Amino acid sequence: MTTSLVIVDTGCANLNSVRYAFARIGVTAQISTNAATIQTASHVVLPGVGTAAAARRQLEQHDLLNVLANLQQPVLGICLGMQLLGTHSVEGEVLGLGVVPILTEALNTQQFPVPHMGWNRVTPLQDSPLLRQLPSLPWFYFVHSYAMPVTSWTTAQCTYGEQFSAMVQHNNYFGVQFHPERSGSTGLQLLRNFVELTDANPRS
Amino acid sequence: MLAKRIIPCLDVRDGLVVKGVQFRNHEVIGPIEPLVERYVQAGADELVLYDITAAAHGQTVDRHWVDRVARLIDIPFTVAGGITNVAQAQAILAMGADKISINSPALANPALINQLVDEFGSQCVVVGIDSFYNPESHQYEVYQYTGDEQRTRRTSWTTYAWVAEVVARGAGEIVLNCMNQDGVRRGYDIEQLRQVRQLCPVPLVASGGAGCVEHFIDVFNQANVDGALAASVFHKDIVSIDTIKGALAQAAIPVRQITHPS
C-alpha cells in the first residue's frame, strides 16, 4: 500500500526536523491539523518539544483530541508526543489522549543534571517491530525532564538516575521518548520500521 | 548511561566557517556543509553553529544555512548568534535547529531567557557565557559582544553569579567559554569548570582550549562536564573525533562510538 504519512502540527518547533528525517528515508510527510487528513493517513506522527500544556492547547484548538484518540493506523508519538499518548502529565497537570495507560512524571535524575540531554542507550524489554535491524543496545538522542515509568506497556527502557520508559506501545499507538529524527542512522532505521508497519497488522 | 558529548563548534561569519585565536584574527576555514557532514560522519554527538558577527552587529543569523543544515544532518544542532527575541528564535527552531543559544542578548536583557523558556521549554534554550579570568581581581568575569573586538566589553557580572542567574531563569544548558584558553589548545580551564559544575544543575558544556586527546579525558574526569566543545582542534585535523572517543572509552568514560557498535 502507499504510504501517506501525516505529521500532526502540534505547534511545536521541531516539525521540520521530523519531516526532513522522513525525507531522508524517501517518505514525503505532510504536516497537518486537518482531522480528515489525519484520519485517512496511513501513518500518523505526533511530534513535540516544549510544554505538554502548549501542545494540548494546540490539539484542542483544532478539535483533534478525539480524532487522535480513535485512530486505527500506526501512530508514533515522539518525546512530548509520546507523553501526550498517556493518561496525564504532571507537567502543568495536563490530561493526555489516554491511549497508552501510563502517566508522565518528573524524571528523578538523582544527582544528575536536568534535563536528561544527550545520547543514551536503550534496553529492549519486549519484541517491538520498531527495533528491527537495530543494535541490541541502541543509542538514541534524548532531551526531556519528564518521563513515563516502566510499565507492562514499556517495550524498551533507559536509565538516567532512575529507569524510565524509552519506548511504549499499546495496540496501534507507539511512543518513543527519544528523538529518532536526531539519532543518526539508528533513528532513521526506527522511522523506516515505523513506516513499514501496515494498517492491517500494526503490531507485526 | 548517558554518553559524554563531543561537540564540534563551527563559528560562522558571512555564511563561511571561520576560526580566530582568543576570539580574534578570524581566518576562513571553508563552507558550512562539507564541514558539517564531515563531523557527523566522524561521530560528532551534536554541533554548534555560532554566527560570531551577528551578535556583535545586532543582526540575526542568516536563515538559509540553518535550513540547509537541518535537511542535511541527523544529529542535533544548536544555532547561536544575535538572537534577541522570541520571533527570531521561533524562526530558527522552525527551520529545524534543535536548540538556540543566546549570549550577549541575554546579558543585555536577562528576561529574554525567561521568555524563550516559556515559549519553547528550557530544553532548547542554551546560554553561552564568555568568561575571562581577571588576574587583578582573581575572579572570573563575564564578557559581552566578544564576536567584535571593537565592542567587546567586560560586564558587571562575575561568572559564578551569572551562571546562577541564568539557571534561575530557566536555561536548559550552559556552554562556558573560557576565553583565556580559547583557540590556544592548552587544555580546558579545569578549575573554573569544576567550580561552575558544582553550582550548575543543568547540563554544562566546556568550551575553549582543547588541543589534544588528554584534554578531553581531563575535562570529563576532573570537571565532570556533560559535553566538550571544540573548534580548531577539529578544523585543523589535529585530532579526530574517533580517536578522542576511543581514548575516552579506554578511560571508562561513556561515549557513543558509531564506528564500533556492540
Give me the CATH superfamily of chain B.
Aldolase class I
- Number of structural domains of chain A: 1
Q: Which homologous superfamily in CATH is the superfamily of chain A?
A: Class I glutamine amidotransferase (GATase) domain
* Top-tier CATH class of chain B: Alpha Beta
What percentage of residues of chain B falls in helices of 4 or more residues? 25-40%
Protein model, in words:
The complex is a heterodimer of chains A (204) and B (262). Chain A has 204 residues and is α/β, with parallel strands linked by helices. Chain A has helices at 15-24, 35-40, 52-61, 65-69, 80-85, 184-195, and strands at residues 5-8, 29-32, 43-46, 75-78, 88-89, 94-95, 103-106, 116-121, 123-124, 139-144, 146-147, 154-160, 162-170, 173-176. Chain A has one domain (5-195): Class I glutamine amidotransferase (GATase) domain (Rossmann fold, 3-Layer(aba) Sandwich). Chain A has 6 helices and 14 strands. The mean pLDDT of chain A is 93. Chain B is α/β, with parallel strands linked by helices and 262 residues long. Chain B has a single domain, classed as Alpha-Beta Barrel (TIM Barrel), CATH 3.20.20. In chain B, 36% of the residues lie in helices and 27% in strands. The radius of gyration of chain B is 17 Å and the shape is globular. The mean pLDDT of chain B is 89. At the A-B interface, α1, β8, β10 and α6 of A face α3 and α4 of B.
Question: How is this fold's topology laid out?
Answer:
The complex is a heterodimer of chains A (204) and B (262).
Chain A lengths: L4 E4 L6 H10 L4 E4 L2 H6 L2 E4 L5 H10 L3 H5 L5 E4 L1 H6 L2 E2 L4 E2 L7 E4 L9 E6 L1 E2 L14 E6 L1 E2 L6 E7 L1 E9 L2 E4 L7 H12 L9
Parallel strand pairs in A: 1-2, 1-3, 3-4, 4-14, 5-7
Antiparallel strand pairs in A: 5-6, 7-11, 8-10, 9-12, 12-13, 13-14
Chain B lengths: L4 E9 L2 E6 L2 E8 H11 L4 E5 H6 L5 H10 L4 E4 L5 H9 L4 E4 L1 H5 L2 H10 L4 E10 L4 E6 L8 E6 H10 L4 E6 L11 H9 L5 E4 L5 H11 L3 E4 L1 H4 L5 H10 L12
Parallel strand pairs in B: 1-4, 1-12, 4-5, 5-6, 6-7, 7-10, 10-11, 11-12
Antiparallel strand pairs in B: 1-2, 2-3, 7-8, 8-9
Helix pairs in contact in B: 1-3, 8-9, 9-11
